[in-house]
Description:
single chain; about 140 residues; alpha+beta; CATH 3.30.1330.40; four-stranded mixed beta sheet; 6 strands; YjgF protein; RutC-like_sf; YjgF/YER057c/UK114
Amino acid sequence: MAITLVNPSGLPKIEAYRQVSIATGSKLVFIAGQVAWDADGRTIGRGDFAAQVEQCYLNVATALAGVGGSFNDVAKLTIYAVGWTPDKMPLLLEGIGRAAAKLGVTPVPPGTLLGVSALSDPEHLVEVEATAVID
């Protein structure tokens, strides 16, 4: 595996992700921001934040599989959430958990969560981009 995830001492241990990823693979992969579209470009989970998070994560996994990788190869995630407030955290974690169960992984790479006013399509509530390293 090209990615090792760690929580160095002196930094808080956060259950949703690890603070640091160490990449040792040979191929650097940048996944464009994924929204809650299915393969036909239809929005999944209109108005449902958790469902859209789940679909975004599944789309990241699909993109990775297309280049010979998996969620285990993700070095960093960036999540853009429309109108983010801390009370949405349970819905974010629910969507991540559902995607993780479907994928059989524990996606905990370092991540950045950014609240934004809008995305390119008003139906989209969240967008997830990833950087991965593959052996």
